[in-house]
Amino acid sequence: MKKVFFLILVTFSIFAFATKYYFLLTEIKPVEKADKKSKHLKIESNFYKYESKRVKIEVEPMLLKDIGKYFNQKGFENPFDETPEGFNYIFFRLRIENLSKETNFEFSPSSATLNDMLSKDDTTIFQMFSFSPNGNKKLEILGKTMFFKPLILPPEKWIERLLLFEYDEVVPCKKMVLSLSNLTAGREIFEIEFLFRTKFVKEKRDAEDNER
To answer: What is the distance between the terminal CA atoms of the chain, rounded to a whole angstrom?
Structure first.
């Protein structure tokens, strides 16, 4: 009976906290010395670079406050310019280069996870923007800049696009792991993990946040 009461009390406390406060993700960056665990992995500035004989992959984390600059550099308007800061969206700039001269490289966005989160797919993105002002234009931009469909990259070709995740847990975490699974190079199938350190700040919800 005491255990049940304790669980109810903890649940109520978390709910009461969540209605008044939330944790805003303010920083995400590669973990120092994480590149020492693999000869294929390097950290340059704020991003990872993985390179083997078959493939070269760059992974750079970005938050809502950073993403506008990325779209501007690509010559696009920022589709997320009206998104409230309270959303903990995490973007990853993913650049993949097939170094092979003979075989394709394959990657599926649905096999990418951030801790236990899946990346936003095209259906979710459509629901997010279809009824917003200039929604069709924003969806067109996102269709050109995000990974949605399985990729088959020909030999000696490269592509750069975004993966998008949303951290919606009440309690923050100190580290996140981006896993790219079922990567296929020729007959080889493998997985790469990228470890990130995070920083959250406690923010007070306003009336508009509570209505969302």
So the answer is: 36
Read off the pLDDT of residues 16-59 as tens digits, 9 standing for 90 and up: 444 577 899 999 999 988 777 788 999 998 999 999 999 999 99
Q: How many CB atoms lie within 10 A of CB 212?
A: 8
Q: What is the DSSP string of 172-193?
A: --SEEEEEEEEEEETTEEEEEE
- CA distances to 37, 59, 126, 180, 207 from 47, in Å: 16, 6, 29, 15, 37
Tokens, residue 181: 């699974």
Token pair belonging to 27: 């920083």
Domain that holds residue 164: 2-211
Give the start-end residues of each E strand in 52-187: 55-63, 89-98, 105-107, 112-114, 117-118, 151-153, 158-166, 175-185
Query: Which amino acid would we find at residue 107?
Result: F
State both tokens at 196.
Answer: 């990130």
Pair 196, 176: CB distance under 8 Å = yes
What is the pTM for the complete model shown? 0.86
What is the rounded distance in angstroms from the CA atom of residue 141 to the CA atom of residue 200? 29
Beta bridge partners, 96, equal: 57, 159
Tell me the one-letter amino acid at 154: P
